Amino acid sequence: MTAVLDATNTRTLTYAEAVREALGQAMEADERVFLLGEDVGTYGGAFGVTGDLVHRFGEERVRDTPISELGIVGAAVGAALAGMRPIVEIQFSDFTAQAMDQIVNQAAKIHFMLGGAATVPMVLRTPGGSGTGAAAQHSQSLEAWFAHVPGLKVVMPATPADAKGLLLAAIDDPNPVIVLEHKLLYKQSGPVPDGAERVRLGETAVRRTGGDVTIVATGVMVSRALEAAETLASQGIQASVLDPRTLRPLDDQTIVDSVTATGRALLVQEAPKTGGFMAEIAARIVESSAFGHLRAPVARLCGLDVPIPYAPQLERAAVPQVEDIVREASELVNRW
Amino acid sequence: MDLTKDAAAARETLRTMWTIRRFEEAVDDLFARGLMHGTMHLSIGQEAVPAGACLALREGDYITSTHRGHGHCIARGAELDAMMAELLAKETGYCRGRGGSMHIADVATGNLGANGIVAGGVPIAAGAGLAVKLRGGEQVVVSFFGDGAVNEGAWHEGVNLAAIWDLPVVFVCENNHYGMSMSVGRAFKVQRLAERAAAYGIPGVTVDGNDPQAVHDAVSDAVHRARAGQGPTLVEAVTYRWKGHSKSDKNLYRTREEIESWREQDPIARFERAVAGTLSEVDIAACRDEARDRVREAIRTASAAPDARADSLTDAVYAGSDR
Ligand SMILES: Cc1ncc(C[n+]2csc(CCOP(=O)(O)OP(=O)(O)O)c2C)c(N)n1
Ligand SMILES: [Mg+2]
């Protein structure tokens, strides 16, 4: 399903501003909502996302923490259990590794383990992705880690509007939600609704419709796929571009419907190929009724199976670029 | 050793500090001119800590370093051109352009790595100390980390392991007053970070981190204890970072006056005054000029080197021929 934006109520914001607006609106609307994380206060966040929120809501609700990721996430789990609506910022998604026990063994499972008697309504926002020269420990795309854990919801907004709307929905959600933002998207602008409209978790967005090939992409790959689709169109190839937006829950039906129509699927992710989330989408396609409509093998275009290197030309070579998507898609269409 | 009275030691200390300063000023400049990419964490103002600490080490000793690691690398005797080449993303860089500033390390000088993960090096230092102990060697490990690292779980686990097993590790905290924007005053209830040592049953000392002599004395004592099998020590060196945390820092969390007051305690200027009776003006100027010339030469050599090659990326992930 495509999210329909009411053009009269939108203005242009950057992705970072859209996140900040959602945080501000959620804190205004609900006193239980508060933020905690490293340098989210006066510094305004490592990527400037929380900005001036500390001046609007004070240091109690926009809470700077020591460098203690496990403690931060654990404190959020505890506060959520005790009736609050904490939103954690982890400066780089790589540092969720420090907090993994609280995310995976605690937050994800408490509701189930306690037989439904308790809930953990918390949000963990964190930027992933490469492209800034920050090298191997500051550039990973770890969505598959989280998507593999029952009990977590996993969100990957690709546009400013979704950065706001999905975050608001995540804050409402009674479960722990991991929101994987992308550092290269923070400065991208787009139309964003004024109000606090939610974008429901679990609805794949159809960003573009074309009959020859379905390109499924996440995160920063969505805008690259759309750019590639323009080039492909000039070559006579019409591509649909689908953005799942949430990996858990996953709206695979919209993907299956599109692949049923086009007969070809190119799945694009920044993360390394092996064990990546696009393998899950590939499996959903071939397990579905779309299988009989396939005119080509399901294709994946992914990051190389390497840590992200520092040198700019190496970093570029490690993850799919627009021209790679164009090449793979046209090969898929022309060969099959 | 008296670094101010012994002419050779005075010269070496001064040279090391000037080299770190000039190297990082050059990096800052290259970055500002768009000739260097990524992000940089500069240790300008903190040079006395690596200079004083590494003088207490021998060949074969190890260090673990941090995201702010140029100084540690230089003080252990790394080649400036391979460092500069790394930062300029060249094939001749220490990490073949794969690591950059945050992972810079000259393994040949016992540097087990700068680290992009705060406190990441602390348990690694304990492990290197364990290796030394298991082999029955005489080496020691110096683990550098910032004040911010002291609140990570990894720090506590690493220090405790070293403590209970009497490992030959010296934990050197570069307390520069801030972890990014978080002041030590807000992040800790203890007055001195060295107090944390008591929790692990090891000695903890706090020293003036802008005085290479004070750092050297404390680290030398700790190194002696470590070599003698008496286990680890925590040395807190109090210093100050002049530049922003990284390139995104707008310095909103501290005042201009505070920065200025620490610039007045410049560890290099202080040391130059302290060695005035030992080294002549000419000697001191020579240390300065040598540092400048070496850095210039490193930029020249590194700039002429070939860019890091993208063709062999996947080959570089696993060690050994069996990929
Ligand atoms: C586990 C982890 N959390 C957060 C960060 C982001 N970060 C990098 S350096 C830094 C501050 C570190 O402070 P400190 O240890 O005092 O060292 P300093 O930067 O002052 O030298 C932070 C928060 C990180 N790199 N790793
Ligand atoms: Mg610090």
UniProtKB/TrEMBL annotation, chain B:
Keywords attached to this entry: Oxidoreductase, Pyruvate, Thiamine pyrophosphate
SUPFAM superfamilies on file: Thiamin diphosphate-binding fold (THDP-binding) (SSF52518)
Cofactor(s) for this UniProt protein: thiamine diphosphate
InterPro entries noted in UniProt: DH_E1, PDH_E1_Alpha_Subunit, THDP-binding
Gene Ontology MF term list: magnesium ion binding; pyruvate dehydrogenase (acetyl-transferring) activity
Gene3D superfamilies: 3.40.50.970
GO biological process, one term: pyruvate decarboxylation to acetyl-CoA
Sequence segments annotated as region (Disordered): 302-323
Top-level taxonomic group: Bacteria
Domain Dehydrogenase E1 component: 16-308
Classification via PANTHER family: PYRUVATE DEHYDROGENASE E1 COMPONENT SUBUNIT ALPHA (PTHR11516:SF60), PYRUVATE DEHYDROGENASE E1 COMPONENT, ALPHA SUBUNIT BACTERIAL AND ORGANELLAR (PTHR11516)
UniProt protein name: Pyruvate dehydrogenase (Acetyl-transferring) E1 component subunit alpha
Lineage: Bacteria, Bacillati, Actinomycetota, Actinomycetes, Pseudonocardiales
